Amino acid sequence: MSSESAITAAETPAANGHGEAHSTAGFKALMLGSIGVVYGDIGTSPLYALREAVVAANGGEGGVTAQGVLGVLSLILWALIVVVTLKYVVVLLRADNNGEGGTLALMALAQRAVTAGAGTIVLLGIISGALFYGDAVITPALSVLSAVEGIKLVTATFDPYVVPITVIILVVLFSVQSRGTARVAAFFGPVMCVWFAVIAIAAVPPILRHPEVLYALNPIHAVWFMLHHGVIGFVTLGAVFLAVTGAEALYADLGHFGKRPIQTAWLFIVLPSLALNYMGQTANVLADPKSIENPFFLMFPDWALIPMVALATVATVIASQAVITGAYSLTRQAIQLGLLPRFEIRHTSEAHSGQIYMPRVNRLLFIAVILLVLMFRSSSALASAYGISVTGTMVVTAMMGFVVIWRVWRWSPIAAAGLIAPFLFLDLTFLAANLLKVWEGGWVPLALGAAMIVVMYTWRRGSRLLFEKSRKLEFPLDDLVKMLEKRPPQRVSGTAVFLTSDPHSAPTALMHSLKHYKVLHEKNVILTIDTAPTPRIDPSERVRMEQLSETFSKVTLKFGFMESPNVPKTLAIARKLGWQFDIMSTSFFLSRRALKPAAHSGMPRWQDHLFIALSRASNDATDYFQIPTGRVVEVGTQVTI
């Protein structure tokens, strides 16, 4: 998923529509940045993927036959080639929404392209977004645990300290989020480059000793393994999938780094390094079946173990950081698309709008991650919980990708199905294999995903019901303006801005103001804030003004779903359109609604209560729209839903 706050100044060259670099220096910087942010998750998979796959291939016991190990390696290599290289690098990186990628960007693009079935597209977007939160919780717990476990190989006396050390690292990681990640991000690329170089070089000696591992590049070994291992082969696929978790990040971070830097980094650095490392681990297992205990760290000589544990820990922290900041980015997009209530968003950089921190999201993620570490206590146990959320997201991405290829690229439905069907079949196979691990820990991401789906669906449905109910009670704006111009009440100096989600009806705050104060300002503005189905809006389209009468005007501010709305700053643009906006002589009127459950509503009673609870937890509109609190007047009203 997206990792916006981990972007450095290297982002600047990607300012054009599709985020392509304009210069060699810019391209290199973007490629380095993508290695640090995009590939952190998939780059740390060798810590546990091969071990879990080989153990699964043997029904949870020790070593397997040489042919079996080669079959597992072949499955991993071809999963990297087909799922990551063909599906994401070749096909989906072309399906961008104004240069942006990710499941919600794809949802908005697909939704725009269809006339019927838009509700299904939104549901798919909700499912994929919800499943990502499961990934965001499991990745830090699994990655850091697997890195710290390497310390047990130095001496068994460290065994009891693995979980406490993991918890300490995670506490530090989550506690520094509020400071922003710009400085740390500058080290992401170089550190991950060192990581990929080291894991590739360390694999060369074992491969030279056992060159037969190169036979695994022949897909016949993968096919043979699946045909001869029956149910065990199917179970093994669930563990093999651990090697491709993180593939979604290639697509999600498209807008930050651009297509070519991400593709180049994968094809020339990341994929060769991962392939070599998996081959090296396999060669080690062939030489000594006991090394399956921890084939990654046992590739290194004893003197290199402690430095490698340290490097692996740093690499897993980077992988975790990318997922955490991705959760912030996804939450902001979900808020803008009306899938979640408003949460506090703090900008940690003046230069880059993508660098944000969300205290509530950070706190919830931290609690969930620590609980997982304390519940499962080892990376092997936690590996069972991994995969379901990621495979679910991949299935949904493939489905929405079909809609985009068919309706946006204008391919025939048969050609679009022909392209996507093999990927969808593979994703569904991986999902089915991972679902076998539900009772071993797979229920965790499913439970988290289900909870988020309920929250997102409830918020979207409740907001729509509330809007429809409010609309019935409100007075047509044009009729009110005509009445007030014909028989105006007492006027006071200054400008009043009334925020409303329905520009055709008189805002509740305006009606209550007239009812209680019986006065009207010299200038009155009905302000609506629109979220576009595109990631960002061109500044020329940001503000739209319409004069209703001498004293009334209607203003619409438009923001992309990846932008944070700043109302005062945007209204300053309106000066070019003739509005002499002065923040010190302007009062913003907002209506604060107190919700009560109605006797008969469009949702079950429990959902009514959940929607009301979410509404109360929602961040203040004043803070969310960055309006100075000293210029805001809130008018309370009670609504039943």
Automatic annotation (TrEMBL):
K+ potassium transporter C-terminal domain segment(s): 493-641
Transmembrane segments: 69-93, 113-133, 153-174, 186-208, 220-244, 265-283, 303-330, 361-379, 385-409, 416-436, 442-459
Main location: membrane
Enzymatic reactions: K(+)(in) + H(+)(in) = K(+)(out) + H(+)(out)
Domain K+ potassium transporter integral membrane: 30-482
Keyword Transmembrane helix attributed: yes
Location in or out of the cell: Cell membrane; Membrane
InterPro entries given in the database record: K+_transporter (IPR003855), K_trans_C (IPR053952), K_trans_N (IPR053951), Kup (IPR023051)
Keywords: Cell inner membrane, Cell membrane, Ion transport, Membrane, Potassium, Potassium transport, Symport, Transmembrane, Transmembrane helix, Transport
Membrane topology label: Multi-pass membrane protein
Family per similarity comment: Belongs to the HAK/KUP transporter (TC 2.A.72) family.
Function: Transport of potassium into the cell. Likely operates as a K(+):H(+) symporter.
Entries under HAMAP family matching the protein: Kup (MF_01522)
Name the record gives this protein: Probable potassium transport system protein Kup
Gene name, Swiss-Prot/TrEMBL: kup
